[in-house]
Records
---
Amino acid sequence: MIANRQTAALAVSLSEVLGIDVQATEWMRDALCAQTDPEAFYPDEYGSVEPAKAVCAECPVLAECRAYALETGQRFGVWGGLSARERQQIRTAATTVDRLVA
Ligand code: SF4
C-alpha cells in the first residue's frame, strides 16, 4: 500500500509539483534562448546539444520551460535543459509509472 502511494506520487505531473500553469506562456518573455543563436537549440544529428544546455543552465525560466515541453509533448530541440531524447525517456518512464498505478 505504501509503495503504491509512493508510486502514485511520482505520477503527479511536473507542473503540479512546481505549481506551474503550462497554459500560461508569459515565462517565454524571459527565455534566455531568445537572446542567443536559435540553431544551437536544434542541432542536426551530428551536432551537440551541450551549447544549448549551457544556455538553459543559466536561464531564469528553466523549470517553466521544462514543464511546458514535457506536458505539451515538444518532440524536437532542446527545451528546459533537456534534449529531445531525454524528454522522451522521461515521458516513457512517466507512462510506465501511470500503467503501474492504474
Ligand atoms: S530553459 Fe533553455 S530552452 Fe527553455 S527558455 Fe530557457 S534557454 Fe530557452
Note: Confidence is low (pLDDT under 50) at residues 1-11.
---
Amino acid sequence: MAFVPQLVLALLLAGTCLGEPPPRPQASTATRTVDGITTIYNFGDSLSDTGNLARQGAAGLLRYTTRLPYGVTIGHATGRCSDGYLMIDFLARDLGLPLLNPYLDKSTDFTHGVNFAVAGATALNTTALAAKGITVPHTNSSLDVQIGWFKEFMSSTTNSPREIREKLKKSLVMLGEIGGNDYNYAFLQTWPIDGGYSLDNVTRMIESVAKAVDLIPDVVKTIVSAAKELLDMGATRVVIPGNFPLGCVPSYMSAVNATDPVAYDGRGCLVALNLFARLHNAWLRRAIGELRRPGVMAARAAVPPWPRVPASDQFHHRRMHVRRLICLDLS
Ligand SMILES: *[C@@H]1O[C@H](CO)[C@@H](O)[C@H](O)[C@H]1NC(C)=O
Ligand SMILES: *[C@@H]1O[C@H](CO)[C@@H](O)[C@H](O)[C@H]1NC(C)=O
Ligand SMILES: *[C@@H]1O[C@H](CO)[C@@H](O)[C@H](O)[C@H]1NC(C)=O
Ligand SMILES: *[C@@H]1O[C@H](CO)[C@@H](O)[C@H](O)[C@H]1NC(C)=O
C-alpha cells in the first residue's frame, strides 16, 4: 500500500486561515519528515518561483520583484513575487524540509528538491499561445520547458529509470498552480493597457473572459498530460492546484474601476473573473478524474470560502497566498 499514488487536486483557497510567521530560511531537516517525503519538485509560475525568473533576467513589471520592497519581511529581495515567503516555502517547512532552491541557481543544494517554477510562466508553450494570437511577455519557460529541466535533472542525478522511481517514491510533486498566466495574457490582449490594466468596461471584461474560455481545454490538457508523464516516471504524490479567485486578486481589483455594481459579487470581487476561475477548476477536476487509473487515488482538499482581499496592494501577490498555504490539505 505504500506505493499507492495519490493525485490530489488541491484548491488553495482559504478565508479563515490566519497567517503564520515566516519560515526560517534553512529549516532543520533532521527533525522530522512527513509521510516519508524527503524531496519536493515544484512546477509553476510566480505563485511559487523562488528565484528562477530573477536569474533569467526579470523584465517589465516583474523586474520590480528583484528589489525591495519585495522580500521586505525577509530583509532582501529573492525574486519571490511577494513581500515575504510563498506557499511553497511554508509547505517545505511544514514537511520538515529546507526551502526549495531555484533550478537556475546552479550553486545550490538540491538534496531536498528543486523548484522549476518561473514567474510569468504559462502552461501552453510560446508557440501554442502565439498560434492563438497571445504574446508571452516574461519568460518562455512554460510547463513543457520545466518538465524538460526536471528530466534533465533526474537523469543527471540518477543512473537508471528505476532509480528515478525510487527517488520519486519519496517525493512530493507540486504541479502548479500553472495556467493562470495563459489566461492573464489573454486578458491583457483584449484589455487596453495604460501603465497597467484598465478595465472599467464590464462588457469588455465579459468579452475577454469569453475569449479566455477558449483556452481552458488546452491548458487543462497540458497540465494533465504533464501529470501523466510524472506518474509514468514514478511519482506517487502529485498535487495539482486549481486557479484562485481571480476576481479577488488585488492587481485586477485595483485596475478595474467598474462603476457598475453588477460587476461585483457580495464579497466585492469581480464576478466574471471568479466565474472564469471556477470554470477552469471544474474542467481541471474532471480531467484529473479521467486520469484516475488503478493504483491512483484522486483526493480533493477542502475548499473554504474564497477570501475577501483589499482592493489594492503594491505587491504582486501579497501574503494572501501565504495564508492559503496553511490550509493545504495533503491527506
Ligand atoms: C508547443 O506545444 C505544442 C502543443 O503541445 C507542441 O506540439 C509543440 O511541439 C510545442 N512547441 C515547442 C517549440 O516546444
Ligand atoms: C521567447 O522566445 C522567442 C523566440 O525564440 C524570443 O524571440 C523571445 O525573446 C523569448 N522571450 C523571452 C521573454 O525570453
Ligand atoms: C465597452 O466595450 C465595448 C466592447 O469593447 C465597446 O463596444 C463599448 O463602446 C465600450 N463602452 C464604453 C462606455 O466604453
Ligand atoms: C474610479 O472612477 C471614479 C468615477 O468614474 C473616479 O472618480 C475615480 O477617480 C476612479 N478611481 C480610480 C482609482 O481610478
Note: Residues 14 and 304 are 5 Å apart (CA to CA).
